[in-house]
Inverse folding.
């Protein structure tokens, strides 16, 4: 799959061609400093004023202020600093100012983090109070009603970036009537998707980010209601009428202007009804491809451009990797925490079960998406479904990882029997889907030896045999033939006299080992491989393949990712997922095996680095990996 389908619009968007053109025009022809009084400066200033005027009209800001800045994070800082300075002044004058900083529990992290930061920095010591959300992701208005009389500042987003849930701003505004609280509404996800008439509301501050709606990163806006307190965050040359110093980002302003023009003139962005039809089509194809899928926010009351879902038995990482291989870019939970694969605090706040929160995927598209893109997305989603359905039953060892711990499956496809070692609750769905069609002979614990069938000396999995061996302190390890040992949390020293040195240790701790290590290597305690030549860039890979036509490319992504993508690099590649590497290792590590160069690759370079490192630690010098992964190969 080559051309990507970008379905992560809530994280950021591509730049609209008209916006790109406007930015280039600003840089090439209107590069003057808008503060300069000569013609070049005046030209730039005219451009800036025009964009501001359009934004004022579109957002309905009346006689409020609208300043350009770097984006919503800056707008949030400015708004919170302004509010907290005003609260401090009111307090000093003995006026009622409130004592709580209230924020919706599903707000973007920029809000609670900034509240805590400025509250601490200004020495205000106000209580920072999350406002609960209901099961549909909406603010709990009854809770807000109880807090409102004591609230100094209330922060509630217009629409949620993870779920697309649209807030009841009218309801919140009504609850805040009579409260001394200032009100910040994060409008980042609302721009271009919801009608906004800010001056008609009680909202004091509304930040925006251009890059969420086809403008470039680094340009944003902040609305401040007429009469709302204001303190500049940035002081200097007095730009933006002294409200935000620093020479303006004219290319960004020009690009944002082009987006706002498209919004105002119509024709570029789809109607609400069209977007709803797009969402329904995508949701239908997801339902067909991923049986058991649950959507984590009701469609009624959410932006039609956002779908948040979980699939039993598939982690968000697995789904992301599968979609990525099929050329579909989606994200897990919030984009900011995707690397950590943590449960989503937004879904947690909605009270969803842990498995849904930790395996959630967000698929979001921008309002300029067209029918052809949606049709292509549906087709690829269907392909992902086919790939998943066609996945063969696992055979051999399967390593599953969650929360820093490994669970191991020993599967024998011929006899359709399997054993699960150190099962974790968080992986139950996944284990269930993998062992479908298998007879589970035992679910074993290395901690206390539990699960072993009474009176059995060994468990037969087809031709393979699993035995139990006491390690000490009630812990046990399980020996698979004479090749592998499932050793739980036992250290190599614990096992030194119990096992032959070439036994491959399959531990329970991900800190101890990403894959597996022979006892001999573990006892030698070699530090992580320092070999720089293990990393190949594209050129080094091409050189190696030329010099060693027999080199084997090994795709260490999951089998369904491999299948979703088709051929990689134009070279035949075999599929040995990292999660199955332990089973394959003995074949590559045979004492007199010829060391054919092995080049591991995956999506980002993480899994392939682990695989190459594992082989090198066992003395396999000809192991390499594609640094940066396939993602960098275009
Ligand atoms: N608020 C919401 C709802 C967002 O989605 C984001 C970005 O993800 C932000 C604030 C922060 O925006 P930026 O990173 O552009 O400053």
């Amino acid at each position: 799959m080559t051309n990507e389908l970008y379905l992560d619009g809530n994280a950021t968007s591509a730049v609209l061609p008209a916006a790109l053109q406007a930015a280039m025009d600003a840089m090439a022809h209107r590069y003057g400093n808008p503060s300069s009084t000569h013609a070049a400066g005046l030209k730039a200033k005219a451009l800036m004023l025009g964009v501001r005027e359009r934004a004022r009209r579109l957002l309905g800001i009346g006689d409020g202020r609208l300043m350009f800045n770097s984006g919503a994070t800056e707008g949030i800082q400015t708004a919170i600093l302004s509010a907290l300075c005003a609260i401090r002044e009111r307090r000093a004058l003995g006026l009622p100012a409130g004592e709580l900083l209230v924020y919706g529990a599903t707000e973007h992290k920029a809000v609670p983090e900034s509240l805590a930061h400025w509250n601490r920095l200004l020495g205000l010591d106000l209580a920072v109070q999350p406002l609960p959300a209901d099961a549909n992701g909406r603010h709990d208005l009854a809770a807000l009603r109880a807090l409102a009389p004591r609230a100094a500042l209330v922060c509630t987003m217009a629409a949620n970036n993870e779920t697309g849930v649209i807030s009841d701003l009218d309801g919140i505004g009504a609850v805040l009537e009579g409260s001394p609280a200032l009100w910040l509404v994060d409008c980042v996800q609302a721009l271009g998707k919801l009608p906004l008439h800010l001056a008609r509301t009680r909202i004091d501050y509304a930040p925006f980010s251009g890059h969420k709606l086809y403008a470039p990163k680094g340009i944003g806006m902040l609305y401040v209601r007429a009469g709302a307190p204001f303190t500049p965050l940035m002081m200097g040359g007095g730009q933006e009428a002294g409200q935000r110093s620093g020479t303006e980002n004219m290319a960004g302003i020009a690009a944002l202007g082009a987006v706002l023009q498209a919004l105002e003139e119509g024709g570029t962005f789809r109607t609400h009804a069209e977007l709803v039809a797009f969402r329904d089509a995508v949701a239908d194809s997801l339902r067909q491809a991923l049986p058991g899928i649950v959507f984590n926010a009701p469609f009624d009351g959410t932006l039609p451009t956002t779908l948040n879902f979980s699939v039993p038995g598939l982690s968000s990482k697995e789904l992301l990797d599968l979609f990525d291989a099929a050329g579909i870019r989606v994200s897990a939970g919030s984009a900011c925490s995707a690397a950590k694969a943590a449960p989503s605090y937004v879904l947690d706040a909605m009270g969803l079960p842990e498995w849904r929160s930790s395996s959630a995927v967000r698929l979001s598209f921008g309002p300029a998406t067209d029918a052809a893109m949606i049709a292509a997305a549906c087709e690829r989603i269907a392909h992902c479904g086919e790939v998943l359905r066609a996945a063969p039953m696992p055979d051999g060892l399967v390593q599953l990882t969650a929360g820093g711990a490994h669970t191991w499956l020993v599967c024998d496809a011929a006899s359709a029997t399997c054993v699960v070692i150190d099962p974790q609750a968080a992986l139950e769905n996944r284990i269930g889907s993998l062992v479908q069609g298998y007879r589970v002979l035992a679910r074993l614990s290395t901690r206390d030896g539990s699960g072993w069938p009474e009176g059995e000396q060994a468990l037969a999995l087809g031709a393979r045999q699993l035995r139990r061996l006491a390690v000490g302190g009630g812990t046990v390890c399980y020996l698979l033939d004479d090749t592998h040992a499932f050793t739980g949390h036992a250290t190599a020293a614990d096992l030194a006299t119990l096992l032959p040195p070439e036994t491959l240790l399959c531990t329970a701790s991900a800190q101890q080992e990403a894959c597996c290590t022979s006892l001999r290597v573990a006892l030698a305690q070699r530090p992580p491989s320092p070999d720089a030549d293990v990393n190949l860039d594209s050129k080094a890979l091409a050189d190696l393949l030329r010099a060693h036509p027999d080199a084997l490319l090994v795709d260490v992504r999951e089998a369904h990712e491999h299948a979703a993508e088709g051929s990689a690099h134009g070279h035949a590649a075999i599929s040995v997922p990292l999660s199955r590497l332990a089973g394959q290792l003995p074949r590559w590590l045979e004492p007199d095996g010829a060391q054919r160069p092995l080049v591991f690759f995956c999506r980002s370079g993480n899994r392939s680095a682990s695989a190459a490192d594992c082989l090198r630690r066992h003395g396999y010098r000809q192991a390499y990996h594609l640094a940066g992964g396939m993602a960098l190969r275009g």
Notes: Confidence is low (pLDDT under 50) at residues 334-340. Residues 71-73, 108, 110, 157, 161, 186, 188-189, 209, 211 surround pyridoxal-5'-phosphate (CB under 6 Å). Residues 478 and 590 are 22 Å apart (CA to CA).
